[in-house]
Design a protein that fits this description.
Blueprint: H1 23-30, H2 36-47, H3 49-52, H4 57-63, H5 68-77, H6 83-94, H7 111-132, H8 135-147, E1 150-154, H9 160-172, E2 177-180, H10 183-191, E3 197-203, H11 209-220, E4 224-230, E5 242-246, H12 259-278, H13 280-295
Parallel strand pairs: 1-2, 1-3, 3-4, 4-5
Helix pairs in contact: 4-5, 7-12, 8-12, 9-12, 10-11, 12-13
Protein name: RpiR family transcriptional regulator
GO molecular function: carbohydrate derivative binding; DNA binding; DNA-binding transcription factor activity
Keywords: DNA-binding, Transcription, Transcription regulation
Length: 299
């Protein structure tokens, strides 16, 4: 009988998933075997790789005269789970690694330089977002929220804190609202919506599957759908009744938002101010009463 050793009880740990690399080389090698549609997508990506990292799946599909599903399928053939992972891998092949922290940073930047670059990026995002944010869309959003019986706010990942903040700010001015940051609850909430409900979806990329699906379900259920998303075409836009757009470039290909959150919070601030003025008496009364309650939580 074999003697059991201490190592016999140790189970091998699963191997960590290797990052996808060499995307352009893979695409070039795969090109001769592709279908006509996939070949058009591949040709477009190969000829415009530096631009593709800033594009949505919808924009790539339109340029290649293909469907979004065909773009995703090609990405999966290359070993990516989907378009976003492919785009991150493509970016890894094109840019310096430090740019995954922040686009404008260099490895040898000192602390003062880092601070200045980050603040300049934030200010640029605010200035650019002001240019693309449409006053008419903001007015439509205010009108829809004022008429709504309740407001549901959707956000996942880095958008979740923005959704929570918007929920808090809406309640402070007397508007019945709820933040839903779990994908399953988002689907349930959206399916149970109706014509009296307004949903607000926060998604920088406009390509997050869960929030796109929830927004689609809410629209199909009759809700008015408001979307806070970055400028440019994305799958989310097809299900938006009202668009409040930002212009923050740095998170087009990165996994976490930085300047996009600054721009989103500015839109939230503007929306809350417009709503407070549109419902002035109720808002002032609610702010006063909640201030008294919250003051008891401070020394």
């Amino acid at each position: 009988m074999k003697k059991q050793t201490a190592t016999d009880d140790v189970k091998p740990s699963p191997e960590r998933e290797q990052p996808l690399t060499g995307t352009l080389d893979r695409l070039q090698a795969l090109r001769p075997t592709l279908s006509r549609t996939a070949a058009r997508i591949a040709d477009f990506i190969l000829a415009n790789a530096a631009d593709v990292v800033y594009m949505s799946v919808t924009e790539v599909a339109e340029h290649a005269q293909a469907s979004e599903g065909s773009v995703v399928a090609l990405c999966q053939q290359l070993g990516a789970r989907g378009f976003q992972q492919f785009k991150i891998a493509l970016t890894r092949d094109l840019v310096q690694p430090v740019q995954f922290i922040h686009e404008d940073l260099a490895r040898d930047d000192d602390t003062q330089t880092v601070i200045e670059k980050v603040f300049r990026s934030d200010m640029q995002a605010l200035q650019d977002s002001l240019k693309v944010l449409q006053t008419k869309e903001m007015s439509r959003a205010v009108e829809a929220i004022v008429k709504a019986a309740r407001v549901e706010v959707y956000g996942i990942g880095s958008a979740a804190p923005i959704a929570e903040d918007l929920h808090y700010r809406l309640r402070r001015i007397g508007i019945e609202a709820k933040a839903v940051v779990d994908s399953h609850l988002q689907a349930i909430s959206a399916a149970l919506a109706n014509e009296t409900v307004v949903t607000i979806t926060v998604s920088h990329s406009g390509s997050t599957f869960e929030t796109v699906a929830a927004t689609r379900l809410a629209k199909e259920a009759g809700a008015t759908t408001i979307c806070i998303t970055n400028y440019g075409k994305s799958p989310l836009m097809a299900h938006a009744d009202i668009l409040l757009q930002t212009m923050a470039r740095e998170t087009q290909f990165r996994t976490e938002a930085m300047t996009s959150r600054i721009a989103q919070l500015a839109i939230v601030d503007a929306l809350i101010c417009c709503l407070a003025l549109a419902t002035y008496d109720r808002a002032m009364d609610t702010i006063s009463r909640t201030f008294d309650v919250l003051s008891m939580k401070r020394y």
